[in-house]
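Q: Given only this backbone (488 positions), what sequence would you predict?
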């Protein structure tokens, strides 16, 4: 944190000199909040493109100083800075943070700032129920918010989900509890956050270029457990090392905080899990050794894919840790509707189901998606981000009817298929234009038989062909609708 102390009292912010690193969805709100508290704010940004200049002009019109890095030159620490507040995506090895460390200046993320300001007006702040993990964060947080709402609690799904925590803690709305999604980036810059209860859903290699190693990535994820007061929720089925349970063991929590597992198998004491097609609780019951409380049916979860059942169990565990009754868990899960492009059924054409999971942008997410269907014609490929596909293909080979490959790094997927699933027919589309998706759907339809599922689960990022995974999913859905209409 550095040697200097920075107060979160409203009066003490006046005249403080703060450097805000980065324009964008977190930097701009942070700059405005701090400026409104009377701090002297200097926003620094590495780039100086047209969008950055427009954002800078808006802030400067409000009296906030902005320094843009011309030609990509590194942003520098403002003179006299007492605090740096950074956008979560700024890498820890950025020269700005080295300068801050040398000067003894603490570095916070916007989540840390929100935590420090949450009781600024003297009101009792809403507790945080926090969720992180490589995959499933947004779905789990939205499930959790739906359950809390069904319990009659005033809540919101906030954080990395796209809703600013600063807005949630400083706005006029009064909340009983917040469902908070936290990324590894945000947790890295949030040393003081202490949740009521928290969950790490899973761990798989991701963002290693930013964190530097799997160990550092896992350690940042594990920060979500620090200081928990009621429950640390972990994935009891995880086989990766370190596991989410390992992170619980290493966490420094409040006295009496419990480790609560979730499993797709029969739960043991202090776990939530499945008995036949029933989601049950053996953690928050009077006699954990002999009792199990029914929470919901598998059919109450939409969609009822295995990884989504796991998400539902994690959400239920956090809600139960907060005292939510079983009936509200069931109602909240029934009311929940998943976001677009997350294992979403699009249509059935000639007896073949078409499912859009464009959000499966890494191998861990794609493996969970592939585990939900059998047999599958798999549409995969895009930007691999340094990923290897051998384990994914080896584990999923028995489910594959065929594969259609698109995108810049499709050769990596093709080579893994050749090694581990040589019997699976593969169509390699040597094109990266957006029209390739329509061709991919046509080829997948040719390979599929009635009863099959054509699954878009790319296991790759989308930016080689599309602006984002949403646009990729929309292209898939449009191609499926054209196929259904006979226009493909």
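A: Predicted residues:
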């Amino acid at each position: 944190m550095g040697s200097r102390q920075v107060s979160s009292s409203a009066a003490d912010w006046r005249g403080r000199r703060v450097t805000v690193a980065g324009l964008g969805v977190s930097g701009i709100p942070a700059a405005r909040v701090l400026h409104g508290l009377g701090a002297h704010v200097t926003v620094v940004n590495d780039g100086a493109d047209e969008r950055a200049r427009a954002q800078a002009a808006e802030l400067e019109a409000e009296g906030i100083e902005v320094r843009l890095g011309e030609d990509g030159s590194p942003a520098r620490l403002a003179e006299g800075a007492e605090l740096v507040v950074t956008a979560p995506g700024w890498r820890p090895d950025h020269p700005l943070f080295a300068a801050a460390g040398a000067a003894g200046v603490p570095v916070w993320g916007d989540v840390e700032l929100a935590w420090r300001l949450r009781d600024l007006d003297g009101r009792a702040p809403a507790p945080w129920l926090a969720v992180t993990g490589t995959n499933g964060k947004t779905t789990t947080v939205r499930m959790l918010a739906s359950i809390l709402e069904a319990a009659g609690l005033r809540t919101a799904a906030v954080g990395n989900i796209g809703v600013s925590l600063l807005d949630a803690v400083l706005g006029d709305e009064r909340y009983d509890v917040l469902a908070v999604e936290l990324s590894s980036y945000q947790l890295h810059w949030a040393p003081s956050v202490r949740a009521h209860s928290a969950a790490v859903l899973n761990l798989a290699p991701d963002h290693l270029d930013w964190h530097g190693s799997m160990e550092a990535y896992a350690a940042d994820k594990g920060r979500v457990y620090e200081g928990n007061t009621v429950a640390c929720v972990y994935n009891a089925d995880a086989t990766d090392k370190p596991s989410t349970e390992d992170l619980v063991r290493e966490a420094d929590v409040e006295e009496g905080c419990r480790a609560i597992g979730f499993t797709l198998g029969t739960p043991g004491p202090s776990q939530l899990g499945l008995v036949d097609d029933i989601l049950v609780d053996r953690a928050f019951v009077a006699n954990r050794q002999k009792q199990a409380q029914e929470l919901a049916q598998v059919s109450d979860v939409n969609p009822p894919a295995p990884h989504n059942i796991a998400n539902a169990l994690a959400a239920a565990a956090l809600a139960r840790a907060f005292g939510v009754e079983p009936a509200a868990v069931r109602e909240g899960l029934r009311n929940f509707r998943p976001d677009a492009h997350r294992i979403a059924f699009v249509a059935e054409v000639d007896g073949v189901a078409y499912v859009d999971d464009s959000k499966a942008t890494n191998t861990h997410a794609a493996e969970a998606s592939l585990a939900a269907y059998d047999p599958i014609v798999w549409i995969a490929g895009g930007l691999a981000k340094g990923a290897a596909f051998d384990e994914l293909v080896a584990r999923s080979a028995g489910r594959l009817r065929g594969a259609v490959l698109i995108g810049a790094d499709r050769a990596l997927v093709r080579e893994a298929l050749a090694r581990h699933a040589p019997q699976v027919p593969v169509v390699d589309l040597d094109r990266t234009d957006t029209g390739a998706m329509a061709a991919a759907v046509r080829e997948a339809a040719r390979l599929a038989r009635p009863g099959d599922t054509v699954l878009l689960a790319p296991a790759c990022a989308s930016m080689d062909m599309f602006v984002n995974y949403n646009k990729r999913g929309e292209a898939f859905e449009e191609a499926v609708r054209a196929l259904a209409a006979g226009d493909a």
